[in-house]
Amino acid sequence: DTGVSQDPRHKITKRGQNVTFRCDPISEHNRLYWYRQTLGQGPEFLTYFQNEAQLEKSRLLSNRFSAERPKGSFSTLEIQRTEQGDSAMYLCASSKDRGGVSYNEQFFGPGTRLTVL
Amino acid sequence: AQSVTQLDSHVSVSEGTPVLLRCNYSSSYSPSLFWYVQHPNKGLQLLLKYTSAATLVKGINGFEAEFKKSETSFHLTKPSAHMSDAAEYFCVVNHQTGANNLFFGTGTRLTVIP
Q1: Share above pLDDT 70 across residues of chain B, in percent, rounded to a whole number
Q2: In this structure, what DSSP letter does residue B12 have?
Q3: CB B13 within 8 A of CB B21
Q4: Residue B40 has what pLDDT?
Q5: What is the mean pLDDT of chain A?
Q6: Which of A48, A93, A113, B50 could form a disulfide with A106 if both were Cys (CB 3.0 to 4.6 A apart)?
Q7: Cβ-Cβ contacts under 8 Å, B92 against chain A
Q8: Helical segments of chain A, H only
Q9: Is the peptide bond prior to A8 cis by the omega test (within 30 degrees of 0)?
Q10: Nearest in space to B5 (alpha carbons), one of B106, B101, B113
Q11: A111 to chain B: which residues are within 8 Å by CB?
């Protein structure tokens, strides 16, 4: 059983550069989530997909951030013109919508740690 | 609005002694509540969840939590700490009627002293 995977695990970039992260969810999971976790804080929700549709976006997701899930499988999160404040761990999670259940457990990947110099 | 407050940023216990990690929540609706654990360099793992069934919830690795509506609390306990329990623990709330994002607390780092 392969869990949620994320690539790369670490990324160091210079301010102003663009970066892209990839998340591969558990294969039968139709929901995919992105979170951001800064040092000493809990993860904060960024955005959520059901299949290929992006259904919810946090106000944390500035216009420099864009996420896609083109075929309803893997997802990418791109940050344009990175700033030092973007330095964080970016977490991906996936879940399976079982309809009528109040909560569908989210399974988390190991994260991509971004450092912006 | 929904939020959780983890009352201790760091808890230190001796191996074999009880663990208590405190969490208070606020929610405009009937919440679902969870505890997640994060070991270094590993993904977040669900320990246990409360979704309006039994108020005393049993999770993995001997952990339990009790939902107390009158106190708006969901404290995590374990009778006897193991060295492998050392990690960061997050209390999390989710809107009962199916909103899909989780609201995490700021975390409690548990240290277990041999």
Answers
A1: 92
A2: E
A3: no
A4: 83
A5: 91
A6: A93
A7: 42
A8: none
A9: yes
A10: B106
A11: 43
